C-alpha cells in the first residue's frame, strides 16, 4: 500500500537514468511517497519499476497522459528530454499537479515562461532539479561567508570561477540525449553549465549580470550541439564582479567553485555532487598573506565540514513536498523563489546562446 502518512504523492513521467536517483530520493524524503510511474510503453515502465524495487502499490502507466489523469498523484517529477518539458509540464499544471522538472528547465526562456504561466494560473508549485542548492553546505556557506555582519564574511565578491566537466565515453557522445539536437539541444550548456551559471547567480544574490560573453573556444559535435564552452559574466554593482565558467563533456571530471572576496575566499571541489552522500566540506581562507621572502603563506585554508542526515536530492524532494503540502493542506500560495531562480538561470543560458550567434560578442542583460 502507498504510505498515506506521507503527505505528497509523486508520479514520475519517464524512465531516464536520473529518475532512478530521484525515485530513491522520494522514498527517503519523510514527507513524500512514490505512487505512480509512466513511460511511453507499459512494458518499459514495468521494467523500470522492477529494476528499482518499487512496491506493488506503485501504479504503472503506459502513457504520460494516463498518469496525469490519476487523482491520487499530487506532484510529478519530469526527467524527460528538455525538448519535452514545456508540453508535459504545462499539461501537468493544467491537471493541478505540482511540477518538479529536471534541469535545464526549458530550451529557452520563452518555453519556460509558458511553464511558469501554467503553474501560476493553476496555483501549483514549480521547482527545477538543481539538487546542490538544497544541501545544508550551501546554506552554511551563505550564512558564514556572504552575510556582511558575519564575523567571517569574505567581503564584497570580486571574482567567481566554476567548472563542470566530465570525460564522456564514445557511447555517450554518440547516443546520449544530451548530444541530440532534437532532444536536448543545449548540450553541455543546459546540463553542466546550468549548475555553474546558477552558482554564479547564487553567489551574487541572484542579481543578473550586465553582460554575458561566450569565449571562442566552444566545441560542438557534428549536429551542432555544444560539447565544451567557456563563458564570462560581468556585474558592475555594488562592485565589479567577474565570473568565469568552463563546462565540457571532453575533460576530466571537475566540479569546482571558487568565490573570492575582498577579505577571504571559498573553495568547493565537489559543489554539484559531494564526494560523500552524508557530509560535505569546503575550504575558507581569511586574511591570507605571503610570509617574508614569499616562501609560503601565513595561514592555511580552514576546512569546514557539514553533515547532512539526508542526501541532497532527498532534501530537494523534502523541500518541494513541504511547499506542496502547504498549498494542498493549508491553503498557502506557491513559493515564487524557485521559479525566479530558474528563470534567471534560463535568461543567462539564452544570453550565452545569443553571444555564440553573434560570434562571441558580449550580450547585455
UniProtKB/TrEMBL annotation:
Residues 152-266 form the GFO/IDH/MocA-like oxidoreductase domain. It comes from Vigna mungo (Black gram). Belongs to the Gfo/Idh/MocA family. One of its GO terms (molecular function) is nucleotide binding. This is Gfo/Idh/MocA-like oxidoreductase N-terminal domain-containing protein. Residues 9-127 form the Gfo/Idh/MocA-like oxidoreductase N-terminal domain. PANTHER family: NAD(P)-BINDING ROSSMANN-FOLD SUPERFAMILY PROTEIN (PTHR46368:SF5), PTHR46368.
Amino acid at each position: 500500500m502507498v504510505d498515506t502518512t506521507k503527505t505528497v504523492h509523486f508520479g514520475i513521467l519517464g524512465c531516464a537514468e536520473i529518475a532512478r536517483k530521484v525515485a530513491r530520493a522520494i522514498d527517503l524524503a519523510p514527507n513524500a511517497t512514490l505512487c505512480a510511474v509512466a513511460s511511453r510503453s507499459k512494458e518499459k515502465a514495468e521494467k523500470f519499476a522492477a529494476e528499482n524495487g518499487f512496491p506493488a502499490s506503485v501504479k504503472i502507466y503506459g502513457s504520460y497522459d494516463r498518469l496525469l489523469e490519476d487523482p491520487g498523484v499530487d506532484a510529478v517529477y519530469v526527467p524527460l528530454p528538455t525538448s519535452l518539458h514545456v508540453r508535459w509540464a504545462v499539461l501537468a499544471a493544467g491537471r493541478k499537479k505540482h511540477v518538479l522538472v529536471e534541469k535545464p528547465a526549458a530550451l529557452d526562456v520563452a518555453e519556460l515562461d509558458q511553464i511558469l504561466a501554467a503553474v501560476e494560473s493553476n496555483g501549483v508549485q514549480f521547482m527545477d532539479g538543481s539538487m546542490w542548492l538544497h544541501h545544508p553546505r550551501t546554506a552554511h556557506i551563505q550564512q558564514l561567508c556572504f552575510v556582511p555582519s558575519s564575523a567571517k564574511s569574505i567581503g564584497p565578491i570580486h571574482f567567481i570561477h566554476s567548472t563542470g566537466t566530465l570525460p564522456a565515453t564514445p557511447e555517450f557522445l554518440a547516443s546520449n540525449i544530451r548530444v541530440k539536437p532534437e532532444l536536448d539541444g543545449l548540450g553541455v550548456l543546459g546540463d553542466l553549465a546550468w549548475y555553474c551559471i546558477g552558482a554564479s547567480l547564487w553567489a551574487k544574490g541572484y542579481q543578473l549580470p550586465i553582460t554575458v560573453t561566450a569565449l571562442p573556444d566552444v566545441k560542438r559535435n557534428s549536429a551542432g550541439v555544444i560539447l565544451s564552452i567557456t563563458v564570462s559574466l560581468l556585474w558592475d554593482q555594488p562592485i565589479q564582479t567577474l565570473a568565469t565558467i568552463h563546462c565540457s563533456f571532453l575533460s576530466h571530471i571537475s566540479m569546482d567553485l571558487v568565490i573570492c572576496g575582498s577579505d577571504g575566499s571559498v573553495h568547493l571541489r565537489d559543489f554539484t555532487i559531494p564526494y560523500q552522500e552524508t557530509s560535505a566540506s569546503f575550504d575558507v581562507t581569511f586574511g591570507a598573506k605571503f610570509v617574508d621572502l614569499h616562501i609560503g603563506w601565513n595561514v592555511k585554508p580552514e576546512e569546514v565540514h557539514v553533515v547532512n542526515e539526508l542526501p541532497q536530492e532527498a532534501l530537494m524532494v523534502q523541500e518541494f513536498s513541504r511547499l506542496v503540502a502547504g498549498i494542498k493542506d493549508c491553503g498557502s500560495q506557491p513559493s515564487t523563489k524557485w521559479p525566479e531562480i530558474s528563470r534567471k538561470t534560463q535568461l543567462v543560458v539564452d544570453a550565452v546562446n545569443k553571444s555564440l550567434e553573434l560570434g562571441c560578442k558580449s550580450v547585455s542583460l
